[in-house]
């Protein structure tokens, strides 16, 4: 498959008063055309920062991208000028966020905010832009789109607002849609609708999706390919079926085991013991070592590298041999 | 909207009645009586008693209030004892001088404080931000009488760039543009004093409001759309940051007419501020009550204008 975006050795650090936080620490991943790639991990593991780094939206200060490459269709986004990046944002790569309630500007109408994106990236007259905005609102399943276009965000429900966000993101037919926990703030029935919508849009437009989530149910439903992140590093990468069937990294197995299952009658849910390590005080070896049930001596001393175990299944764990991945 | 404004205007009536009762009661409590300030101290007791009788001052308070309130409603605000002129005429000849000065200061501080506040916020902790933080601290701490005198010493006495006081050159008969020029020349120093005082606070207010706004999710959304930073800040940010600032501006609207007592006094600006103070000292009851009633009405009107402006900038506020 053809690569659309490839991140190589990305390092995004935050410089705080207490020290340096390596939010994204040497992360490499790729997204193929027409594929949905999921990044999974606990809160604070660097998923969102990875996504924000792609569009260079890291607030600076305190954050800074310290190294690596983000190659999008042959161009390194990190080397582009601010203006060139702006022409990509919202146009070729667009993003939807976790919080639909606060992600729309409260003082402008829905139409105004969508039209703004259209006028910015496409050579359309105001009238054509309005028509296009109505059209895209209809596409994301908003009833009475020609009325809603004049509504303010506070007049819509959370699910509707997230649809508007998706409409805004899709209006310029992006090649890559980054969705940062798009359903976390919504209730379950609305979640399913939004996921259905994203899947349908992906099929219709062949847009690649980078989906960030901590919800394994969402992953199973949406993903072609999964990367599991822990403390700013990728610990495992595989196709979705492979990963669910055969998780290698103890962290991934832990995550899968802690998913509630409706047909199994259990008193208590499994939880991975311990806490995510503090970003200021990371263990010397494997970051997961203090919580790992299968830890060995070597894990304390030396950080494991990402290795290919079998075709397309990578893991960073000393339990497995396999060939080194450069 | 029309309905809302009508309702608010109607609601002002009982409030104004309440205020008029309060003002009347307070002046009843004040020591002395109008007659003693009106007539020659050497006048006979009989003459005074007669005058009292004429002015209904011997009647119960409620009856007196009825006479006063009816006259006010009829547009008869009485005669100032001190100026020997109708109260309305006295107020009219001074209040506009205050208004010109306050309006100029209001517009100038708005025009300066908003851009400075926005720049301070977008460049938080930069040199620019620090310089204006110090400036704001000076502006807030500096008493206007001291700053006014300092300016007079420097710019009027030492280098003679601006006149010491007044609103026009004494005896000037200039009209049209020449008059405007003369007034502006006299206005400069008091304007600087007044503006410094309000600028500092407004600037800090805009800054903190903007700092709050640029951390919001919708600012990130605007950036993710590919908008230029200027559009992000001045379209998406400022519109939101101005909402709380509008409240502050609204609260200063009535102040446009009340006059700046200290500054006007120092620069001998013929405004309503010192006139009101003087009316207190000379026990000019009718003038004082007139000024107070007028300011009360203007304050209510100012609040209404602020509320309407509020709704114009924030679509989440809608009137039922």
TrEMBL record, chain A:
Subcellular location(s) of the protein: Cell membrane
GO biological process, one term: peptide transport
Record GO cellular component, one term: plasma membrane
Domain ABC transporter, first and last residues per copy: 5-256
Chief site of localization: membrane
Lineage: superkingdom: Bacteria
Pfam families, per database record: ABC_tran (PF00005), oligo_HPY (PF08352)
Gene Ontology molecular-function annotations: ATP binding; ATP hydrolysis activity
Membrane topology qualifier: Peripheral membrane protein
InterPro entries assigned: AAA+_ATPase, ABC_Ni/Peptide_Import, ABC_transporter-like_ATP-bd, ABC_transporter-like_CS, Oligopep_ABC_C, P-loop_NTPase
Alphabetically ordered keywords of this record: ATP-binding, Cell inner membrane, Cell membrane, Membrane, Nucleotide-binding, Translocase, Transport
Family note: Belongs to the ABC transporter superfamily.
Name the UniProt record assigns to this protein: Oligopeptide transport ATP-binding protein OppD
Organism: Thermotalea metallivorans
Automatic annotation (TrEMBL), chain B:
Subcellular location: Cell membrane
Sections of the chain in a coiled coil: none
Record GO biological process: transmembrane transport
Chain segments annotated as transmembrane: 12-30, 99-119, 131-156, 187-205, 241-267, 287-313
Domain ABC transmembrane type-1, first and last residues per copy: 95-306
One Pfam family from the record: BPD_transp_1_N
Membrane topology label: Multi-pass membrane protein
Assigned keywords, A-Z: Cell membrane, Membrane, Transmembrane, Transmembrane helix, Transport
Signal peptide range in chain numbering: none
Any single Gene Ontology cellular-component annotation: plasma membrane
Top-rank lineage group of the source organism: Bacteria
Protein family according to the UniProt entry: Belongs to the binding-protein-dependent transport system permease family.
PANTHER family, sorted: DIPEPTIDE TRANSPORT SYSTEM PERMEASE PROTEIN DPPB-RELATED
Name under which the protein is recorded: Dipeptide transport system permease protein DppB
Organism for this UniProt entry: Thermotalea metallivorans
